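Reading a protein record of the kind used here takes only a little practice. Think of the row as the fold of the chain written in a discrete alphabet. A record is reproduced here so that you can trace the correspondence yourselves:
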Amino acid sequence: MPVVTATEVTVYSNISASAGTIAASGLIPLVQQRIVEICNNDFGTDLMVVASATFGADTIVLDSNDWADFGFANGDEIVVKNSYRNDGYYEITSFSDGTATLASGYACVDELSSRTVVFAVVKWPLTLKRAASLMVAYDYDVRPNRTPGVSSFSLGPYSESYSASDKTMGMYGYPADVLAALPPPVVAGI
């Protein structure tokens, strides 16, 4: 599951689009990646395995371990780190022995990895749903109507002014009050 679903975006924000339009826009994966970068956190848990694996189009096969031995369960979302070509987030339909089968819509690139790869179950904090929803709504409804560097414009009797202060905008051009709902960045070594 992504950090937020399209339906949740309609619940947690005043977005003008339907859930179907939001899903088709591709904004949810973009916002999810931005949240990971802003927070410096992939939201992987300590339920993990470090092993070498073989990646197929719709499977991940551990070379010498069984997923169940580590506590992975059907329906888990995992994050993959340190592979050659398959780092990212995957929803898993089932774990059987050493084979994880990816849910529909997820795919890996064929790769036999002799390096140590980290696989961890992902847990998105509930507080992220509101922040992610507001970020998606901002990208969908507000950002397309703003021209970078323009603080006001007029068209006949209509005029509009924007705050030009850098203090009101955060990373990726999101309003600071939207980003304030995100957890603080993880600092390495702490």
Observations:
- Helices lie at 6-12, 19-25, 27-39, 127-142, 176-179.
- The mean pLDDT is 88.
- Residues 20 and 163 are 32 Å apart (CA to CA).
